[in-house]
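REQUEST ID: PR-0412
SUBMITTED BY: lab tech R.K.
PRIORITY: routine
TASK: structure prediction, single protein chain
INPUT:
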Amino acid sequence: MPTLTACYRPASDTAAEIVDDQAVIIHLISGTYIALNTTGAFLWQRLDGQTPLAAIAAELAAAYEVNPEITGADVLALAAELEEEGFIQPAPG
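STATUS: complete
OUTPUT:
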């Protein structure tokens, strides 16, 4: 279960394409894929294995001028889904 202090990165067996501020991510082993809207793509592009989810949520809140508590909950929910489906993994460390 992701926490806001955790850092994540794309799993090594994924491929992603950003098109028109949306993301399509494919899990190369299972063949499953997910399409992310603009805010989901915002998160995906920042999963560098070094940036905590809290910092991504704060950046998202600032970019869209919304409450950081809302973006924090949304970032955690999406990260949990992406991790469960094997699209992301916790960064070592």
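NOTES: The chain has one domain: 8-87.
REVIEWED BY: pending
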